[in-house]
Design brief:
By secondary structure, this protein is α/β, with parallel strands linked by helices. Helices cover 36% and strands 17% of the residues. The protein is built from 14 helices and 15 strands.
């Protein structure tokens, strides 16, 4: 079985890393899987790019800039605050020809924004399509995560007609978001062999409610994790590796550019940390450097910067006592699953994919959405739990049982085979 995965990047960004992990998991389980990307940074020979050399990189950059031009017309656009807004309007016939020349049995779409493909290109792909959604973009009018219509209430215009888009700062019904959603509706309707994958029950449910995927087969499959790499390490040794104190309770938080991305909940975390009753605690932050303006917490904060090495990241999870994921939106929650795999319980709000990963008061704590007092209670509950060892064990068991490479890859193989059978039946073969 030949599977070609399309993703804009191979290892740059959380969505790309999740796709690359799935790619490796499939290969380890006997699938002939390759990735086709716009920007390649890994040395993997199973990753193909059309952007080789200076000219290729320049053309790719130009495509990204052209794709974003319509957004620049909206002077009040807040896409930097709520995540990218992607029009996906720039056609890429060269990439489509490459896909069809490879002649895969399955074309597996993932994160295809930043000018990689226009949605119109999808109808020219000569193979059944499986689309694993890393966020909401596939079924919205352009946003990767819907903004709040009012505090705590997510926009659901994607279920009917977009327009007056809060992310664009638009007061016009017939704005760019409505036109993009209508394009998607027309294009998807013409693709018979398309199966849609939500990486969480929440994302799959959102897709089912959408105006563009109502007639598609929608399933839920999680992101895979190499649990032989993400595994518990001795806490004392892990702390020594990071020069962290042995006599403190350590609270971990991680998200790239979290302070500039409201749906990651950095402000909610700061408020919760001011309310925790546990003493003798310190905070550890990865994915960001030390900010110029300190958040004014009563706890010492240690910044360890960006981590591109999974072995180092696993040891950091093992070194800490609780991982906090304060997201307002989360399609899956990769850091939560990674933390559980390393035996470190997680405290988070009861939102999105985090509700699939965290079992309340079994391997972590799910706080009432955006109630920072309850999130503080959850952090305290983990840090002071008399059965912390049992929490840690249950965390590891959940990750191995549901997110291990072999477990997830087997489910994907079964899905691919089902899609091929359905395509053959549709073609009358």
């Amino acid at each position: 079985m030949r599977v070609l995965m399309l993703n804009t990047y191979d290892i740059t960004g959380g969505a790309a890393r999740a796709t690359f992990r799935l790619h490796r998991a499939l290969i380890q389980n006997g699938v002939d899987a390759r990735m086709l990307v716009a920007r390649k940074r890994s040395g993997a020979d199973t990753v193909i790019t059309l952007s080789n050399g200076k000219v290729g990189h320049a053309l790719t950059t130009a495509r990204m800039i052209r794709d974003r031009l319509p957004v620049r017309k909206y002077k009040k656009a807040m896409d930097r605050r709520w995540g990218q807004f992607s029009p996906a309007r720039v056609r890429n016939s060269k990439l489509v020809k490459t896909v069809n020349a490879i002649n895969p049995d399955i074309v597996h779409l993932c994160w295809i924004s930043d000018g990689m493909l226009a949605v119109e290109d999808l109808v020219s792909i000569n193979a059944p399509i499986v689309w694993r959604m890393p966020d909401m973009w596939a079924f919205t009018g352009g946003c990767h995560y819907a903004a709040d219509e009012e505090p705590g209430v997510m926009c659901e215009k994607y279920t009917g007609k977009c327009g007056k888009c809060a992310i664009l700062g638009s007061g016009n019904d017939d704005d760019l978001s409505r036109r993009i959603l209508e394009r998607k509706r027309k294009i998807y309707a013409g693709i018979a062999d398309m199966t849609v994958i939500g990486v969480s029950k929440w994302l799959a449910d959102c897709a089912r409610k959408s105006a563009v995927f109502a007639d598609k087969n929608i399933v839920c499959l999680p992101n895979p994790l190499d649990t032989s790499l993400f595994k518990p390490a001795g806490k004392k040794a892990a702390r020594a590796m990071w020069n962290l104190p042995d006599d403190k309770k350590l609270i971990l938080f991680g998200a790239a550019n979290a302070a500039a991305t409201p749906y990651k909940g950095c402000g909610l975390l700061i408020d919760a940390l001011k309310k925790i009753s546990s003493t003798n605690t310190e905070c550890v932050v990865f994915g960001a450097g030390e900010p110029g303006e300190k958040p004014g917490l009563p706890h010492k904060i240690r910044y360890v910067g960006h981590l591109n090495d999974d072995t180092a990241l696993a040891s950091l999870y093992s070194a800490c006592d609780v991982m906090v994921v304060p997201s307002r939106r989360e399609a899956f929650g990769q850091t939560a699953s990674e933390s559980l795999a390393c035996g470190t319980p997680v405290a988070a709000f009861e939102v999105g994919g985090l509700t699939d990963i965290i079992d309340h008061r079994i391997n972590g704590y799910l706080a009432r959405p955006f109630d920072t007092g309850d999130l503080a209670n959850g952090i305290d509950w983990v840090l002071n739990n008399e059965k912390y060892g049992e929490l840690s064990q249950k965390a590891r068991e959940k990750a191995v049982g549901e997110y291990d490479y072999d477990v997830v890859a087997k489910r994907y193989r079964e899905l691919y085979e089902s899609c091929l059978r359905q395509a053959l039946a549709t073609d009358g073969g």
